[in-house]
Amino acid sequence: MKLDLTQELPEAWTPENTPARIHKILDAIKRSQAQLAKIIGVHPVTLNRWVKGRSLPDARAQVSLSQLERRFVK
User: Fold this and answer.
1) Which end of the chain is least crowded, N or C, by CB within 10 Å?
2) How many CA atoms are closer than 13 Å to the CA of 62, on its beta-carbon side?
3) Contacts of 69 (CB under 8 A, 6+ apart)
């Protein structure tokens, strides 16, 4: 099995970039924080903590957010 090392790795979710990335997703999908939280299966308070930079999404949420970002954020 050969690995394709030419594909770019997804950008890491960091305390510095997470709030802005989530805002871009929200703008692109035209949804509220509560609606986005429901879409990705987290509590709205959890998503709000990410937006305020108080915590980071777990691995499962990062995958969901990255998928939304790739699909909708230009």
Assistant:
1) N
2) 13
3) 21, 24, 25
Residue 71: is its pLDDT beyond 90? yes
Number of alpha carbons in the 13 Å side-chain half-sphere of residue 56: 11
Give the domains, in start order, of the chain with CATH numbers.
18-72 (1.10.260.40)
Q: How many residues does the structure list for the chain?
A: 74
Q: Are 21 and 64 in contact (CB under 8 A)?
A: no
CA dist 14 and 56 (Å) reads 7
CB atoms within 10 A of CB 65: 23
Whether the per-residue pLDDT at 16 is higher than 90: the answer is: yes
